Amino acid sequence: MYSLVRECAADSIPVAVTCRVLNVSTSGYYAWRDRPESPRAQRNREITKTIRTIHEESRGTYGAPRVHAEPVLGLGERVNRKRVERLMREAGLQGLYRRRIRRGRANPATEEDLVQRRFAVTGRDRLWLTDITEHPTQEGKLYCAAVMDAYSRRVIGWSMDARQDTDLVVNALAMTVARRNPLPRSTILHSDHGTQYTSWAFGKRLRDAGLLGSMGTVGDCYDNSMMESLWATMQLELLDSRAWKTRDELSTGIFEWIECWYNPRRRHSSIGMRSPATFEGLNLPSSTRG
């Protein structure tokens, strides 16, 4: 009750009026207000301030697990996860969570599928995944093709356009190859059976880069589940956060989300609560760092 009195006083509501309405003692309130804070209360106030900052910097997307990881891994502080959960509840803070979707049984793998739903790899540039997503604006749809490294979950190439054609995926692949410069026949690029990925132009670009092409079964989300997860995260944290007026506005938003948030900063539970860029940096051979 006294906490509520203090909040009302901060809003210029007389203490005596609030105490009368809440049926509490005015002298008791002042005694409570002037009482020195316990070390634990002081620590809770400090942690709550840190939690608010982390939650705000995450664009309001982080729940307790990632908020807890930030001071522990990022700042080297010791704080209990249950304490973070409790303080977040008291502060009225929560993350964004997507509903789990029930899916049907997976289809059998085909001869073209070199991955066969085995996405665990032991190093970067061994398995790349690619797919296309779309989102409406008031001008019309914007299409985005992206390439992800399965090792670190890092988006290593992307392309956006008003048309969902072969150039869209070829440009995303071109950016990826220029950035990573993979060794010939050492990297698998896994996609679906979309016409963009089965086109002659994309196949030629794949061969010229020395990549091993792989395709999942038709209409089976299990065969590219990591890309499906990426799109679902972007949908929740960015695309559905507002109505987009123009394609340029949305493309700028996607660029900023990928390059300024997702790759360098967003923590992933599957890679030890590190961001993709941090995870790669920690696991690069010493000869390639710098």
Automatic annotation (TrEMBL):
<dbReference type="InterPro" id="IPR048020">
    <property type="entry name" value="Transpos_IS3"/>
</dbReference>
<dbReference type="Pfam" id="PF00665">
    <property type="entry name" value="rve"/>
</dbReference>
<dbReference type="InterPro" id="IPR050900">
    <property type="entry name" value="Transposase_IS3/IS150/IS904"/>
</dbReference>
<feature type="domain" description="Integrase catalytic">
    <location>
        <begin position="104"/>
        <end position="284"/>
    </location>
</feature>
<dbReference type="GO" id="GO:0015074">
    <property type="term" value="P:DNA integration"/>
</dbReference>
<dbReference type="InterPro" id="IPR012337">
    <property type="entry name" value="RNaseH-like_sf"/>
</dbReference>
<dbReference type="InterPro" id="IPR036397">
    <property type="entry name" value="RNaseH_sf"/>
</dbReference>
<dbReference type="InterPro" id="IPR001584">
    <property type="entry name" value="Integrase_cat-core"/>
</dbReference>
<dbReference type="InterPro" id="IPR025948">
    <property type="entry name" value="HTH-like_dom"/>
</dbReference>
<dbReference type="Pfam" id="PF13276">
    <property type="entry name" value="HTH_21"/>
</dbReference>
<comment type="function">
    <text>Involved in the transposition of the insertion sequence.</text>
</comment>
<dbReference type="GO" id="GO:0003676">
    <property type="term" value="F:nucleic acid binding"/>
</dbReference>
<protein>
    <submittedName>
        <fullName>Transposase</fullName>
    </submittedName>
</protein>
